[in-house]
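Input sequence (149 aa), recorded before submission:
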Amino acid sequence: MTNHFTTTCSLCEGAGGRVVYESPAFRVIQAEEAGFPAFYRVVWSDHVAEFSDLSGAERAQCMAAVAAVEEALRDVLAPTKVNLAALGNQVPHLHWHVIARFDWDSHFPGPVWAGARQDRSTAHEAELLLKLPAVDAAITAKLKALDAA
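Predicted structure, token format:
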């Protein structure tokens, strides 16, 4: 079920970040979130606000994409934890946050939207940035394999 709003939507008007992979149903972007270089989003292409707006097949496709991004982050980065969230309170356009978390990140073990618990580790962040091309390649390979299936 598609629900195209007449109001403006930042995820309809723009990519929402650096595009890593795009299909007709969704795109995967690397978000620009200071302190969290391995912060990705799976953004559904149609403007729907809620996961239940999707058909059963679309929900399965969406969650397969979320799982593929999580697997790529785990395979390449071996994070302490991967956080998944679909809040949409500020941008009511269906998107899933897929965030690799590390015990050295400034907000760990709290959520990325909470207050910092320790200083940022720019050295660790710089090391992580160097690994993002491999993350992007792994995401693309996993999603292409899903598309081919």
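Checked by second reader. The two ends are 24 Å apart (CA to CA).
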